[in-house]
Amino acid sequence: MKAKLAIASVIIAAISMPAWSDTFKQEVPQAVLPMHETSKPVEFDHLRHTQVECTQCHHKNEERGMSFTSYKCASCHSTAKKDKSIDSSYFKAIHGRKALPGDLGTRCLSCHVNEQKTRSKDKPSLTGCTNSSCHK
């Protein structure tokens, strides 16, 4: 009798597992979110980071629910000039995206106008189309 009860309990638990796991399932946010904890505000697209575990950036907090642990992009994306060609480099993460219609986060000038202000005059323009570092 105990064996039948144990088997029945295991079967019931196994059947209810999918429904129970949905309670803890967290959807990936669809929105591109502004990250202000970085040295310069950046747009963070969760859909481009689905291969990364959520817990690498977020943790559960009893008082606030899910919270963000401040990381710099460079903790995952190398900013070293020698690493520019690596797929996970900061350069490729930013410059390797194609702008889609309505995709405001991927417009060159959204970053390059501000960057140009800090750039020395002897370097190629980041904002002009003719003779710029993009269009030679």
TrEMBL record:
Residues 23-134 form the Class III cytochrome C domain. Residues 1-21 form the signal peptide. One of its GO terms (molecular function) is heme binding. Keywords: Electron transport, Heme, Iron, Metal-binding, Signal, Transport. This is Class III cytochrome C domain-containing protein.
